[in-house]
C-alpha cells in the first residue's frame, strides 16, 4: 500500500459520499466544494483528465480493477511534479504537488472503501462530478 499523500476526509465523510441519498445530498455537495477549494492548485484540465478516466470505466467489465488503476495514475502525476522543500521547516512549498498529494491520498482511501461495490462506485462518480464542477470555479 502506497503512502503517497494524505486523505483529508474523515471516515464519516467518505461513508456519506459512498452512500449518497436524498437526505444527505446537500452534505455531499458541501464536502465536494470544500475539497475543491483545497485542490485549487491542480489545473482544471488535469482534474478533468482524472474524471474522464473514471467516466470511461466500463461498468459491465472488470470495473473495479480499472478503478484501482486510477491510483498509479494519480501517483504518477504527483511524482512528476517537482518538489520545493523549505530548508527551514522541511515542508513542501510546491502547492500543486501538495494538492496532488491530497487528491492521491483521498481518492486512494475512497477507492479502498468502494471495495468492488458497484453502488458505491456510482455514488463516487456522482461526487466526482460535483467535485469537478466546483473545482472549475475555484481552480487558479
Question: What are its keywords?
Answer:
mainly alpha; globular; 140 residues; single chain
Task: Give a quick summary of the entry.
The protein is built from seven helices and no strands. The chain is mainly alpha-helical and 140 residues long.
What does this structure look like?
This protein is mainly α and 140 residues long. It has one domain (11-138). The protein contains seven helices and no strands. Helix 2 (25-38) crosses helix 7 (118-138) and helix 6 packs antiparallel against helix 7 (118-138). The termini are far apart.
Mean pLDDT: 95
Low-confidence stretches: none
Q: End-to-end distance, in Å? A: 31 Å
Provide the structure class: mainly alpha
Largest sheet properties: none
Gyration radius (Cα, Å) is 15 Å
Number of helices: 7
Secondary structure tally: strands: 0
Give the total of domains: 1
Percent helix, as a range, is 55-70%
Rough shape? globular
Protein topology:
Elements: H1 11-18, H2 25-38, H3 44-55, H4 63-68, H5 70-80, H6 95-114, H7 118-138
Amino acid at each position: 500500500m502506497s503512502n503517497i499523500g494524505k486523505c483529508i476526509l474523515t471516515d464519516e465523510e467518505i461513508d456519506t459520499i459512498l452512500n449518497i441519498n436524498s437526505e444527505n445530498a446537500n452534505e455531499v455537495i458541501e464536502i465536494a466544494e470544500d475539497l475543491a477549494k483545497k485542490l485549487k492548485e491542480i489545473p482544471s484540465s488535469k482534474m478533468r483528465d482524472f474524471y474522464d478516466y473514471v467516466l470511461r470505466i466500463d461498468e459491465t467489465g472488470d470495473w473495479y480493477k480499472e478503478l484501482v488503476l486510477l491510483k498509479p495514475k494519480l501517483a504518477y502525476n504527483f511524482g512528476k511534479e517537482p518538489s520545493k522543500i523549505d530548508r527551514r521547516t522541511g515542508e513542501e512549498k510546491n502547492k500543486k504537488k501538495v494538492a496532488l498529494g491530497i487528491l492521491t491520498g483521498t481518492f486512494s482511501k475512497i477507492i479502498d472503501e468502494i471495495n468492488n461495490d458497484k453502488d458505491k462506485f456510482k455514488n463516487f462518480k456522482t461526487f466526482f462530478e460535483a467535485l469537478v464542477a466546483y473545482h472549475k470555479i475555484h481552480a487558479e
